[in-house]
Specification:
Length: 322
C-alpha cells in the first residue's frame, strides 16, 4: 500500500474476489478502505473537509472543529485533527458503537452524546446540538459533512481515480453505501465528467429517507439517513437498492466466510445488494465495491448471534447457510 505519511489518506488496494458468488466469469473487486489508518473511507472525507477550512484560512493550528457523526467520520476527524494540530468535539447519538467512542477519546477528542429525542430523529437532534456548541465556542468551525462540497471532492479526487487506475478505466458497476451520499456523489461526478459507462448503484438501508425512502427505526450505524442531507439532492445513481438489517448481517457473514474479509454493516449491505442484482448483471461484468470499514467495531452487533436474534429476529439459519 502506498504511504505518504500519516497526514494523507492511503491509496488502498483493490483486490479481486473469486469466491464471493458462484459466478466464475464475474469480475468482482473490493477496495479495502478498511485499511485506512482510522479504519474507514471517512479518512478521505475528514482530510478533505479539514483541508477546505485550512486552505481558506478559517482553521489554523489549535482551532476547534465540531461535527455530528455516527462514528466513522468522528474517528477519522479525531485522527486527522491530531495530525493537523486541531481540537475536536464529536457530537454522537446513542446508536454509535461504544468502541468508536473509545477510539475518538483515545485520539484526545471530546465526545458529546445526544440522548434519543422524543421524535426519534437522531440526526436532527445531533445537528441541533452542533449549532448550540458553535454558539458556545466562537471561532469554532463545523465541517458539515452533510452539505460540504469538500465531502464529494475527496472521492472525486482520490477514491474513484484510484479504482479506475487499478482497472485500466474499465468498470461496469460500482456499488457504494450511502449516508451523506458524499462518497457516491464524488464517484458520480468523476464517472459523468469522464463520460464513463460505469453504472452507479446506491446501497441504502430500509428505514432511511434517502432516495424517497420511508423513515423507520434503524439500529446499525454507517448507512442510511433520518433527514435528507443537502448533498443527496445532487445524487442521481443508476440504481438504488434498499437493504434490511438482517440482510446486512447476511452479507457480512458471506464476505467473512467466503473471502475472509471482516467488514462493517454497510459493506454487508453492499454484498446483499450485489446478490439481489446479480440476475440482472451480465455474467462477465466487472463490478467494484467499497469496503467502507472493518467489522471489528461490529463484533457485538452484526457478528454476535445473541444480539442479532434479540434485535433482528431468529437468525440461526444465517450462521450456517453462508
Ligand atoms: C461504514 C460506512 N459506510 C458507508 C457510509 C456512507 O458514506 P457517505 O456518508 O459518504 O454516504 C458511511 C458514512 O458514515 C459509513 O460510516
Amino acid at each position: 500500500m502506498e504511504r505518504t505519511g500519516t497526514l494523507e489518506p492511503f491509496v488502498t488496494p483493490l483486490v479481486r474476489l473469486d469466491n464471493l458468488f458462484d459466478a466464475p466469469d464475474l469480475n468482482v473487486y473490493a477496495k479495502l478502505d478498511s485499511l485506512q489508518l482510522s479504519g474507514s473511507t471517512k479518512e478521505r472525507t475528514a482530510a478533505s473537509l479539514l483541508d477546505g477550512f485550512i486552505d481558506s484560512g478559517q482553521l489554523v493550528p489549535g482551532g476547534l472543529v465540531i461535527e455530528s457523526t455516527s462514528g466513522n467520520l468522528g474517528i477519522a476527524l479525531s485522527r486527522q485533527c491530531v495530525v493537523r494540530g486541531m481540537k475536536f468535539i464529536a457530537v454522537v447519538d446513542e446508536n454509535a458503537n461504544k468502541s468508536a467512542l473509545q477510539i475518538m477519546r483515545a485520539y484526545g477528542a471530546e465526545v458529546d452524546i445526544v440522548l434519543d429525542p422524543a421524535d426519534g430523529n437522531k440526526l436532527a437532534a445531533r445537528r441541533q446540538r452542533v449549532q448550540e456548541l458553535l454558539t458556545q465556542f466562537p471561532g469554532a468551525v463545523t465541517t458539515n459533512q452533510y452539505g460540504s462540497p469538500q465531502n464529494p471532492a475527496a472521492h472525486y479526487s482520490s477514491t474513484m481515480p484510484e479504482i479506475m487506475r487499478d482497472l485500466d478505466g474499465n468498470l461496469d458497476f460500482l456499488f457504494v453505501a450511502t449516508s451523506t451520499t458524499g462518497t457516491l456523489l464524488g464517484c458520480q461526478n468523476y464517472v459523468r465528467e469522464h463520460q464513463l459507462s460505469t453504472q452507479l448503484v446506491a446501497v441504502d438501508a430500509e428505514g432511511s429517507v434517502l432516495f424517497d425512502g420511508l423513515p423507520a427505526p434503524r439500529r446499525l450505524p454507517g448507512l442510511g439517513a433520518g433527514v435528507v442531507p443537502e448533498l443527496s439532492l445532487a445524487a442521481k445513481p443508476d440504481h438504488v437498492v434498499r437493504i434490511t438489517e438482517m440482510d446486512m448481517v447476511l452479507g457480512c457473514r458471506r464476505l467473512a466466510h467466503r473471502e475472509g474479509i471482516l467488514a462493517g454493516a454497510s459493506t454487508g449491505a453492499i454484498v446483499a445488494a450485489m446478490t439481489q442484482m446479480l440476475p440482472d448483471i451480465p455474467t462477465d461484468a466487472r463490478i467494484a465495491f467499497l469496503v467502507h470499514d472493518s467489522g471489528v467495531p461490529y463484533l457485538h452487533t452484526v457478528y454476535d448471534e445473541d444480539w442479532v436474534t434479540e434485535n433482528l429476529g431468529e437468525a440461526s439459519h444465517y450462521w450456517t447457510a453462508q
